[in-house]
Amino acid sequence: MKAKDIMTEEVATIRGSATVAEAVKLMKFKGLRSLVVERRHEEDAFGLVTEADIVNQVVAYGKDPKQVRVHEVMTKPCVVINPDLAVEYVARLFVQTGIDRAPVIQGELLGIISVTDILMRGDFMDNPRLAFLKRSLQESVDAAQVIAREKGADSEEFTTAWKAVEELEAEVAHLSSTAQTKVTPENSAVAEPVVA
Length: 196
What we know:
Elements: H1 3-6, E1 13-14, H2 20-30, E2 34-37, E3 47-50, H3 51-57, H4 70-73, H5 87-97, E4 101-106, E5 108-114, H6 115-121, H7 129-151, H8 156-176
Parallel strand pairs: 1-2
Antiparallel strand pairs: 2-3, 4-5
Helix pairs in contact: 7-8
């Protein structure tokens, strides 16, 4: 599942020169927790203003929202998500950067994705990525073993099959954060090809 599959397509935008009061009014009217800040020109970056930005930088200090501009409290450039990015990588990016939403952009603004979208629309309950990868890893090992028996462990086909095993192994290890799932030619009953 990809970001574009679960993102919210209806996105409200605001100018950086707008007041925070205008931003709050728009957020309330649309029932949103954030607004994408429009680019000033084609080469400019998008920004993001969230309810937390407003509370933390305006409300907490007793500032007048009619006197504070969006550009003073927004994040710019903001983290942006490629629409083809897998949902688990979006979640990982959110954790690493400490954010909970980001605009989905590919040349133009396509939507916004949040932790709520991931939780409510993601398929992680029915299709956990780690379990899928472990099954794929075992299937790839089995296929490599068949190739080794039929064509030899020094064949080009086996080398290609074993590279696929190693790529899956790396992804499984990364997701599980342990090396216990490591499969080697020695413990899988397949000899690794000898590179001349």
